[in-house]
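note to self: dont lose this again. the chain is below, predicted strucutre after it. 144 aa total, dont forget to put it in the shared folder this time
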Amino acid sequence: MTLRPIALCGVLLLAPNLALAAPDPETQRTEAGVRAVENHWGRAFVTGDAAYLETLLSDGYVSVNQSGKVRSKAEIIALARKIAAGPNPPKPVESTAKIEVRGDAAISTVVGETDASVDVFFYKDGRWHAWYSQHSPVKAPASS
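---
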């Protein structure tokens, strides 16, 4: 009989911690989950957060920049460290991407006035992973 009050006290002590543990938005297989990943990716890149980039980018990840230069996962992580260590690292910005999720795959697209980018993701082991990125210049329409 004396075990009940002790067990009850244990439950009451743990309850606030259980209620405060919110699910990680990056694990959601939704547009919001991909957007959370995109935003974290941007912050990680400009701050040189290699640990996050190592987890996010798949081993076969490839990025193609506006000039057509192909970079591997290791090269992107090295570039992020270099940019973060520079005298004026850029500030992260919130993603304005159009995101489409289809099952375990997602595509994030941003088209601006001077450039466009596409990121391809897959969902595995409870998280989104970046698989491929393409960045392209956008030409201004010809004036008439």
